[in-house]
Amino acid sequence: MKRVEVELSKKEIRLSELEMRKWNTGRKHYEEQQSKLQLDLLRLQHAARRTNRRIMVVLEGWDAAGKGGVIRRLTEKLDPRALRVWPIGAPEKTSQARHYLLRFWEKLPDPGTIAIFDRSWYGRVLVERVEGFAQKPEWKRAYDEINEFEHLLISDGIQIIKVFLHIDKDEQLKRFAERLNNPYKHWKIGPDDLRNRERWDEYVEAIEDMFDKTNTKAAPWEVIGANDKHLARITVLKLLRDAMDEKLDPLTRYHSEEFRKEAFHKLGLGDPPPFDPSATNDD
Questions:
Q1: Backbone torsions φ then ψ of 22, nearest 5 degrees
Q2: How far apart are CA 256 and CA 262, in angstroms?
Q3: How far apart, in whole angstroms, are the C-alpha atoms of residue 90 and residue 234?
Q4: How big is the chain by its Cα radius of gyration, in Å?
Q5: 114-118: strand order across its sheet
């Protein structure tokens, strides 16, 4: 079988060169921006649902990088009927007996829905590589397998948005200590997190190899400095909003004016007014 040729991005991504900016305009502005972006996403989700678009969001990052907090803000105002969040952990024994990509084929989004992956198939070239769960020939060939997998999905009309949240080692230490001292976050840290931290440099090498070999033009990596949680959340919300908006035909964003006019007349309401700019999503 001929290998699928994918075009890699020429952009080199190095974690040590990533700018770690801070949110410096205050809590109120952050909350206003977050709410606006969440409502933008909701409107885009409705449009995607009407047009049967399929969207996959892949979230990778260091332990304690804030993936859970980002997912919470991404999903907070979305319609749960057209949304699925997949937390990806170690494969079950039945999955271990099959090709590692099979369990992800089984989680593809239905038409009109968004699937968010909290970790993903990239575990093969990250934790499985570093911890020795995959042998070198297995993880080395996985780069091509992953590129071909994503190529097939994109060719079938699925939009893939890949995000990596990066924090530095000092910030991770701070967040680990916070989790150990907080009874509501205590469950978020375990022996695996401590072991992974001891192999930080090996993970950096694996992460940067992943960028080099899977940062394709069709499915590029977006790497976000996440030392500041507020800035990271706003950045991901904007990224997803812009990526969904770019692929959306403006004519499908709302019901057509023809439909609105017909509906208003059938309901005996006369001609439709412009959309209400003060409208909210509250029931």
A1: -125, 150
A2: 10
A3: 29
A4: 21
A5: 83-87, 114-118, 54-61, 158-166, 221-225
SS3 139: helix
Find out whether 128 and 199 touch, Cβ atoms under 8 Å: no
Judge whether 7 lies within some domain. Answer: no
SS3 state of residue 96: helix
Confirm whether 112 is domain-assigned.
yes
Per-residue pLDDT of the chain (283 residues), as tens digits, is 456 678 998 889 999 999 999 998 899 999 999 999 999 999 999 999 989 999 999 999 999 999 999 999 999 999 999 999 999 999 999 898 999 999 999 999 999 999 999 999 999 999 999 999 999 999 999 999 999 999 999 999 999 999 999 999 999 999 999 999 999 988 899 999 999 999 999 999 999 999 999 999 999 999 999 999 999 999 999 999 999 999 876 656 566 677 778 888 888 888 888 776 566 666 5
CA dihedral 141, 107, 225, 62 (to 10 degrees): -70
CATH, residue 61: 3.40.50.300
Total domain count, the chain: 1
Strands 221-225 and 54-61: unpaired
Rama region for 104: left / alpha / beta (φ>0; ψ in -120 to 50; rest): alpha
Which residue range is the domain that position 236 belongs to?
16-266
The verdict on residue 258 lying in a domain is yes
SS3 224: strand
Contact 37, 240 (CB under 8 A): no
User: What CA–CA distance (Å, rounded) separates 32 from 23?
Assistant: 13
Confirm whether 23 is domain-assigned.
yes
pTM of the model: 0.89
Structure tokens at 25: 């305009």
